[in-house]
Amino acid sequence: MSWQNFRHAEFKCRCGCNKNLIDSDFVDRLQRLRDRYARPMIITSGYRCKKHDQTVGSGTGVHVSGHAVDVLVSRVNAYDLIRCALELGFTGIGAMQHGPHKKRFVHLDDLRSLKGKWIRSMLWTY
Questions:
Q1: Is residue 105 classed exposed, middle or buried when 0-12, 13-18 and 19+ CB atoms within 10 A define those classes?
Q2: What sign has the CA pseudo-torsion 24, 25, 26, 32?
Q3: What is the rounded CA–CA span in Å between residue 81 and residue 86?
Q4: What is the percentage of the chain residues whose pLDDT exceeds 90?
Q5: Quick one: which of 63, 50, 57, 46 has its CA closest to 6?
Q6: Which fold has domain 8-125?
Q7: Do 22 and 66 touch, CB atoms closer than 8 A?
Q8: Which of these, 1, 2, 22, 119, is most buried using a 10 Å CB contact count?
């Protein structure tokens, strides 16, 4: 697994367990997004183990699936990232754009259902 702008280690669980079951096809899509966006994408959350996801997650399990990331981004860069993600067919896009800029992010995933269960709408805010 090799990508021009991402390292596999960027996607490991942040709880300290270091598990990393990020889906390589999903990261291929992220690389295409990065190419179109043409700016760095700092991953603040990638794969999450079940325990960590229960602690910090929304309960949908998309990070546990290996098909989701949160990207540190704000202001017009967030708008541009969302526009590019929509153009490339990402199906889950959440924007957290209030508070300190170092805490703002855009969630990206390519799952609309998990195990046959509808997860949530395509676009949302936190």
A1: buried
A2: positive
A3: 9
A4: 78
A5: 46
A6: Muramoyl-pentapeptide Carboxypeptidase; domain 2 (3.30.1380)
A7: yes
A8: 22
- For residue 26, what are its two tokens? 């999903």
CB–CB of 3/27 below 8 Å? yes
**Extents of the domains making up the chain:** 8-125
Q: What is the pLDDT of residues 8-20, one digit of tens each?
A: 999 999 999 999 9
Q: Which amino acid is at 88?
A: L
* Distance (Å, whole) CA 101 – CA 109: 22
Q: Tell me the C-alpha distance between 3 and 24, whole Å.
A: 10
Residue 22 is which amino acid? I
Q: Are 126 and 94 in contact (CB under 8 A)?
A: yes
Q: What is the largest CA-CA distance in the chain?
A: 37
Q: What is the pLDDT of residues 79-123, one digit of tens each?
A: 999 999 999 989 899 999 999 999 999 999 988 756 666 666 688
Distance CA 68, CA 47 (A): 7
C-beta of residue 53 within 8 angstroms of C-beta of residue 68: no
Rounded to the nearest integer, the mean pLDDT of the chain is 91
